[in-house]
Amino acid sequence: MKTITFSEALGEAILEEMQRDDTIFTYGEDIAKQGGIFGAYKSLLGKFPNRIFDTPISEEAIYGSALGAALVGMRPMVEFHFSDFLFTGIQSITLQIEKIRYMTGGQGKLHLLLRGPDGVSNSAAAQHSESIETIFMHIPGIKIIIPSTPYDIKGMIKTSLRSDDPIICFEHKSLYSQKGEVPEEEYLIPLGKADIKKEGKDITVVTISRMVHESLKAANELVKDGIDLEIIDLRTLLPWDKETVIKSVQKTNRLIIAHETWRRAGWGAEIASTIQEEAFDSLDAPIIRIGAYNVPMPFSSVLQNFVTPDKQNIITAAKKMMGEM
Amino acid sequence: MYKIRMPKFGLTMEKGYIERWLKKEGGLVKKGDSLLEVSSDKISNEITSPTSGILLKILGKEGEEYQVGHVIAIIGEKNEQSQLEKDLGELNKKHLYQNISDKLPVKETKRINENIPNIKASPLAKKMAKENGIVLSKVQGSGPGGRITKQDILAFLEQQQKDDFKIEKLSGLRKTIIERLSKSYHNSITLTNSTEVDFTQFKKQTKSLGVSITSGIIFLLCKVLLRLKQFNSHFEKDCLKEYNIVNIGLAVDTEKGLIVPVLKNAHTLDIKNIQENIIDLSNRARINKVKENELNDSTFTITNLGMMRTDFFTAVLNPPEVAILGIGRIIKKPYIIDEDKIAIRELAFLSLSYDHRVIDGADAARFLDILAQHIEKPELIKNKGVDKK
Amino acid sequence: MQKIRKFEQAAEQLFLEGKLPGFIHLYIGEEAIAAGVMATLNKNDYITSTHRGHGHMIAKGGDINLMMAELFGKTTGYCKGKGGSMHIADFSVGVLGANGVVGGGLPIAIGAGLGIKIKETSQVAIAFFGDGAANTGAFHESLNFASIFRLPVVFINENNQYASTAKKQETTSVENISDRAISYSIPGVTIDGNNVLAVYEAAKEAVERARDKGGPTLIEAKTYRLKGHFVGDPTKYREQTEVNNFWGKEPINIFEKQLINWEILNQKEINNINERLDNQILEAIKFAENSPEPLPEEALTDLFVDDTGYDY
Fold first, then answer.
1. Cα dihedral value B150, B155, B161, B162, nearest 10
2. Residue A111 among the catalytic residues
3. What does pTM read for this prediction?
4. Do A162 and A226 share a domain, yes or no?
5. Which of A41, A124, B82, C24 is the most exposed place for a label (fewest CB within 10 A)?
6. How many angstroms from the chain centroid is the CA of residue C27?
7. Cβ distance of A282 and B142 shorter than 8 Å
8. Does residue B388 surpass a pLDDT of 70?
């Protein structure tokens, strides 16, 4: 084992896979010369000059070209700079990438990976803070991975670069500098498998990304209240690991879904709805969803902190659920 | 005014149990509204109102059982309130067994275990209630807004189990008993010899002396024990400690269980003293006032189940003693006496249980024979039991 | 060209008879562009097509039986009934899909170009697009993108004068769409799109430049959409006289006359060709009509290669 940052783990995954497979190439804004705005490409600087390059700020062309490249046998990996900017080229994803295989009756393999940062960071304000994964869960045609640790990002990016389906990966800005243990030897993490980050008996918390860490903090603080959280990191949002969640809910009989994205019609609603459909009789309390207030992310840190969910929201929800508030 | 009576569901129903009222006293009800839930031994039904008006009075209480036909509520107009007060006393004087239920529209018939949908309960609680046959209306909800949760069902189940059977932790005394009896039973080879003894004369004698059968037997027993000392002994490791004094253990049935106080130096007492002492000991045993030293050092134990309907039995040895005497019920029986005459005599069995490892069957037979002879020759206690030997 | 024309005429008639679901956009009048460009390509070259894509598909070597079955929504169609007219594709002959989004194919074509460039093969990728698409962001992004990376892509603008119902002159800032090439420092030419030989010449030059790592070219092939935007379009936005005028300039008639004049073909040979094509079209219709409908559950296939754990 070695201890490296999330960003370094990501870089390792890209480097290892590019060495292994020369159909993989990667492009986006500010990566080749700068090393990526959050440093994911630092370890790749100067390597593979023909296969790692910077592009103009032409989102529709960037995402659409990934599709074209995949169709001619390449494995493109695109960094989308900020998840917010996906909207500027969204048609290439939602109308092209997500549909072309289906529309053509299963012709072609769309082995392409879109990845980049999302989420709240210090006063980045409304156009640089969004978490928009729910949209891709809603529109069929692209798999979604959202790793929360160095170990997970490395294993999942490597798997994604070997997948034959289009995948979008969201990496929370606050995670890049976080450190964690990563094995020296090569490993892969299968998509669609959740990871129970902490076992517990009272409440199941289904979460991803930064909120995994907030949930773990909440779990620590709730020990003194005698509340034992089970933290499930979905890791893959589509397809999400229903089996693991149901099994956990059958044990704890209570479910909290915690995500940073907007609570209203956030993906937590999908999980909640599915669980009440398929595990209704296991529920001993109404499911609670935790998410951001339904406003664009404000600039002031006071306002931002108010709007963004954190461990306190989980603690409050857990206590309420256990009838202590 | 309309009287709502306990309805009759089916032919055999005699009484109905009011699960709960769905309307409040003084409130408006419309014809067809659900009024209350009634269950019989077979089914549970929602009773709907046969008329519209004000629910003037609820007479049947939730959780109570009423005869079919009993008036359980009155529906009427507001101005009928005063008349109602006057009539109330008369209402249930006679029970009406006519088919009143036929007039009461029953909304739906449900299985008794089915839960009422508008009770707030978590899905899990509802499922658990169904699986365990719990009627949710009987469960107190502790969740937000009174919601019944898993915890409430578990608590209810626990309570229900308490109602079905009582679990009591064993007392220290019972633990001692268990320990001693187990040890005795597992560490000895207990046999029992029994013989039927004619108590007719003995009973008269003791009665005339104003003492109990037990006192009399103890008095005689002391003599036998001092003669056959192997029965008045302790078996310890590989030796038999034969005593020259007699300390009689008395098995006393108390509320808390068996207790064996010891009548020390019984052989030195006359029959009256024995009587006084054993009354005192057993009384104190029943109120748990026996001293520690009054529970030790017995050399022989007797247990008398004669006042209850037991004739002969095996008593478990009280170690390190080697024998115990069980006294059975004295009962009148036809009995052959001298020259083949049949007479009515008062007979009882004496059962001697003994550790066969140290006492042979013939010795036990001898012991019983001698004791029986003593009892059947009551002159031995004529001198008020005072042995002047 | 004639095969395209006959396919489109048959499709039009089938649609009007109510036999085809959805809606279709006909290529009638524009056949010379597909035919002229495709004549310069190899089978392993790529094209991206448009919503008016039947012609590109036929010219690139697509199977008209499978095309017709797809128009019928049959399970034997190119897309197993999932795509229809606007999404016909045959990756095996290099057609990376017709596209229902105006300008949708351009980024895909430059992606194919990127792939070719990295693989260092001598293939090319052609993006067909209409005059309407020339006003999308995708057009500008893609030309710039292709230019800076000198991608082996040829942009073929089929300027048929109408973006749906909007006249090109009223929606586009430049006289010739090829004028926009200068903004991206790439060659741009405007040609007569109804002259198949002119198309061929221009395309040949551009394709060769692309194969020689000379970068992209923008070709504007001026033509005219003889039919409405879609079959059933009331076409109230233009005069019938204008349409009639262009029927006189339609490419097949012109080319037939040339062939006869140059004594390459005589009328009889042309008739034979037409007869053979008619039979092929009839065969395709028969194939489509006799093909089974898809099973309803087939709707839940072909989204992913691996759909393990996916909750449809």
1. 180
2. no
3. 0.70
4. no
5. B82
6. 8
7. no
8. no
CB of C243 within 8 A of CB of C190? no
Angle of helix C267-290 relative to helix C64-71, nearest 10 degrees, comes to 50
C192 touches chain A (CB under 8 A): no
Say yes or no: A50 contacts chain C, CB-CB below 8 A.
Answer: yes
Angle, vertex CA A117, rays to CA A1 and CA A26, nearest 5: 80
Token pair 């076409």: residue = C235
Residue where one domain finishes, among candidates A137, A156, A182: A182
Interchain CB distance below 8 Å, B123 and A285: no
Domain boundaries, chain C: 2-289
pLDDT above 80: residue B317: yes
**Interface partners of C (3+ CB pairs, < 8 Å)?**
A
**Sign of the alpha-carbon torsion through B58, B59, B63, B68:** negative
Instruction: Write the CA distances from C292 to B339, C11, C67, C83, integer angstroms.
Output: 117, 19, 15, 16
C-alpha–C-alpha distance, residues B72 and B57, integer Å:
8
ipTM above 0.90, yes or no: yes
Tally the residues of chain B. 389
Distances (CA, A) of B189 to B184, B239, B317: 9, 16, 10
- State whether A18 and A158 are in the same domain: yes
Please report, for residues A72, C38, C94, C263, the alpha-carbon distance to residue C150 in angstroms, rounded to integers and kept in the order given: 18, 22, 21, 42
Please provide the distance, in angstroms rounded to a whole number, between the alpha carbons at the two ends of chain C: 42
Q: What is the CATH number of domain C2-289?
A: 3.40.50.970
- Predicted confidence (pLDDT) per residue in B263-283, tens digit: 999 999 999 999 999 999 988
Peptide bond between residue B320 and the one before it cis (omega within 30 degrees of 0) = yes
Tens of pLDDT, residue by residue over B107-147, are: 444 444 444 456 889 999 999 998 888 888 889 888 888 88
Instruction: Please report how the helices B213-227 and B200-209 are oriented relative to each other, as an axis angle in degrees rounded to 10.
Output: 110
| Total of domains in chain A | 2
